[in-house]
Hints:
53% of the residues lie in helices and 16% in strands. By secondary structure, it is α/β, with parallel strands linked by helices.
Amino acid sequence: MQLFVDTADTGQIAELAATGLVDGVTTNPSLVARTGRDFRDVITEITQLVPGPVSAEVTETSCEGMVTQGRELASIAGNVVVKVPLTWEGLQACHVLAGQDDPIDVNVTLCFSATQALLAAKAGARFVSPFIGRLDDIGQNGMALIRDVVDIYRSYPRTLKTEVLVASVRGPGHVLEAAKLGADAATVPPGVLRQLVAHPLTDKGLAAFLADWEKAKASAGSRS
Ligand code: G3P
């Protein structure tokens, strides 16, 4: 399962990329706006920090506008994935970008239903991003959507080649369930990525190992 980091904070990305555990990055207009920096500068820097896919989202809403902006974004670096919203216009833009002679990878975002995900795959998306946390927020079951989308794509492996990129992740439990369902990727905020490694028994066990080691060294020293 690929793990992407869901942020436009290049400091955090650099720190996490150094672990070798970050397969890609996703951004959206809200995350880039939070940095207060120029959009193109931020995306350029991220593509240099992480060799894997870096999602950069269009802000145009017409098919034509998204295609033009998508091509501009893709020209920043070879690992840019153009993110378009799951609207009719977005699906058409995906079809154009993914289907051109020199195809551009597309991540269809703001997916909240399995039928939307089916259409994203038919439009040729490399990734579809179902937003599970936002579904949970309104009392629906985000993980049930992941199960449905994974099942549907698995039923048509020859024609539906889109990867399920679990988005709007709120905690480690979401990552665990997504992995159990066989989702291709999850994009997680930096804090959640750090939580994935944390376990109190690991800390306690390591402290005990080190204390025992120090004791053994001290007693060996006192015998020599
Ligand atoms: O980047 C898309 C998605 O992961 C946003 O999540 O937390 O704003 O619902 P969130």
